Description:
The chain has about 550 residues and is of the alpha/beta class. It has two domains: about 15-155 and about 390-549, FAD/NAD(P)-binding domain; about 165-385, no CATH class. The protein has helices at about 25-35, 55, 75-80, 90-105, 195-205, 230-240, 240-250, 270-280, 300-315, 320-325, 345, 395, 410, 445-465, 475-490, 520-530, and strands at about 5, 10, 15-20, 40-45, 110-115, 120-125, 130-135, 140-145, 170, 185-190, 210-215, 220-225, 340, 350-355, 360-365, 370, 375-380, 380-385, 400, 430, 470-475, 540, 545-549. The strands form six sheets. Strands 3, 4, 5, 6, 7, 8, 19 and 20 form an eight-stranded mixed β-sheet that branches. A five-stranded parallel β-sheet has the order 9-18-10-11-14, with helices on one face. It has a three-stranded antiparallel β-sheet with strand order 15-16-17, with no helix packed on it. A hairpin with a 4-residue loop joins strand 6 (about 120-125) and strand 7. Mean pLDDT is about 95; it is low at about 1-10. The site of ligand NA7 has 24 residues, from helix 5.
Amino acid sequence: MSDKTAGQDMKAVKRLDMVIVGAGFGGMYAVYKFREMGLSIQAFEAGGDVGGVWYWNRYPGARVDLPSIDYCFSFSPEIEQEWTWSEEFAAQPELLSYMNFVADRLDLRKHYQFNTRIARAIWDEQRQIWQVFTEGGELYEATYCVMATGPLSVPKDPEIPGLHRFKGELMRAARWPHEPVDFAGKRVGVIGTGSTGIQIIQEVGPRAGELFVFQRTPSFSMPMRNKTLEPDYVAEVKRNYAGLRAAALNSAVGGLRPQSTRAFFSVTPQQRRSLLEDAWKQGGLAMLGTFSDLLTNPEANEHVAEFMREKIGEVVHDPAVAEKLKPRGYPVFARRPCLDSSYYETYNLPHVHLLDCLDDPIEEITEKGVRLRSGEVELDMLILATGYDGLTGAMLAFDVVGRDGLRVKDKWKDGSRSYLGLMMNGFPNLFMTTGPNGPSALANIVRISENDVNWIANALTSMHHNGLSAMEPTLEAENSWMETVNTLAQRTLLSKAQTWYVGANVEGKPKGLTIFTGGFPRYAEHCAASARAGYREFTFTGVNRQEVA
Ligand code: NA7
């Protein structure tokens, strides 16, 4: 069969039950789950293989900032026992090996078409199917679409004039080459000091001839104190995985992160200090577990911020450099807290230079390097660690057209909206995993992915048993969910920093915190409650297309 749509040569149409987009945690689990349910599936991935974020982010020093034992699938007890993590916070090569191991073990790759981007997805109301077009001009038709496209998959170049003119090596953290990169003897520049920039700077600093860090907003970074996992510890974890998963599911971040019910001002200044010192010594995420009101009480937050500024001053030898590295003007933890192993120490190396782009802004990129207001910095290599069009970027990167011609980009023109971050009114049978109005970037992405895929699976099973073929949330349900999301967002300090959480890093993007901040357990309970109540916030269509109340 051949067809011509919108000027594209169409190849034979392939008819399926489900199209799945993405080969990160959400996509891989979706492929496994829906195949096991007996659905005919086809999955797509823009990268050359599985791994999602860990396929692309091969930059030096790339590492997860949640405990590895927690940042992995829980749906397969066999995989939990067969895979052994070597470090508390695994590096990218090990994370990618894990994803490959899972893909091999469950034979997932055969369902994927790699190196393939989706250009458009259009709902055909008459036929009750999604038409999914690849950029290569293939057309797939499916009853269901699962967008497992992730909150951080569209890297963002900085809005600095002249980027294309740079004649040296231009490297993007999230599009890092697969071959080894040599820094020896080179004048290397890094733009961006978020989690990514910090990991790169501490790794490349000692290896480069000279390193120039172009810093706009300094981040708060805490010591990771990464360690090798000893066999006894691993054995204990494997014996107790069920308990660890239960603990993670009950925690606000869906993870094994220390938590506290103690308010900051409920203890004496000496006790506060000693709790903070202990947490700092312990490293990792311990600081987040010191007090319960760090993100709700601005005064408590400022005390902890000042403690962390002091720590920077203790490490960095040059007081002027230390001062520039100390974040001010936004609450600590309102920007994603970073973990490092030698970030601040790197600035003690004589060939590492911190350039403060707040005082001395970047004016343009030139053929030879970066021109600041004060003059040009010549570089052999420029590394961009300038972040992502987070949360909504991937869903808006292609054209998704629902019922009555409604486009996601129009529906989201004032900010993302959905019901539970899982489905949108006007887009029947289109499911998202880790969607922008769920806990998203604020909780363990693997636990959210599993929760979301399981929810979709239950919804499809329920539809099947009831002879239904399509579902979508009512507008009232969606509005009510967004009201919950917005009300909760007012209570946190998270929107007080200019970050990708609130869309502040992309020009023209609607601003505001649309992530569910009520914590993972409450989110999971909302999802479970909607299933228990028989999906009454949804409208359904029967197999013979009649509307079912
Ligand atoms: P982030 O956290 O968004 O950091 C991006 C950094 O790039 C940040 O320091 C930005 O400064 C900087 N940036 C962006 N554009 C510019 C320009 N034009 N000039 C100077 N500096 C610029 O992204 P990451 O990749 O580090 O981390 C993303 C997530 O990945 C992280 O939260 C973890 O969840 C893992 P700004 O703050 O805008 O002043």
